[in-house]
Amino acid sequence: QVQLEESGGGLAQPGGSLQLSCAASGRTPTSGAMGWFRQAPGKEREFVAAILRTGSKVDYAESVKGRFTISRDNAKNTIYLRMNNLQSEDTGVYLCAVQTINGFRIGLAPWEYGYWGQGTQVTVSA
């Protein structure tokens, strides 16, 4: 089993920044990605960013490219999401996830991820 613990959410003003962290414990897969999804009230869960567990390949949703940066610290089994220039549409619950299907590439769909954290709330409001 894999346990994921997110932290770093909160309230930010438009144009502000936040950094999320996700620490994984347990028997994490050695291939595939760790990533972030988000879900706003009344909307489906959507891909935000992910990073492969080996190498440097990353992927971002078009809506966050140039504003968000995902990184990882393998020694700590932790990934981070630096979010700059936050906008109101970035509001939602951000969930960390570990990919368990199609591990040869970065998964973009929630069904490719078998382990999920509880989520952390990000609210962008003036």
How would you describe this protein?
There is one protein chain. The strands form 2 sheets. Strands 2, 4, 5, 6, 9, 10 and 11 form a 7-stranded mixed beta sheet that branches. The chain has a 4-stranded antiparallel beta sheet with strand order 1-3-8-7, with no helix packed on it. With 126 residues, the chain is mostly beta strands. It has no helices and 11 strands. The chain is globular, with a radius of gyration of 13 Å. 0% of the residues lie in helices and 51% in strands.
Measured by DSSP, the beta-strand proportion falls in: over 45%
Radius of gyration: 13 Å
Task: Give the CA-based shape.
Answer: globular
Helix percentage: under 10%
Total number of strands: 11
Helix- and strand-based class? Answer: mainly beta
Q: What distance lies between the first and last C-alpha atoms, to the nearest angstrom?
A: 40 Å
Low-confidence stretches: none
Give the helices and strands as they follow along the chain: EEEEEEEEEEE
Biggest sheet details? 7 strands, mixed
* Overall residue-averaged pLDDT value: 95
Quickly count the helices. 0
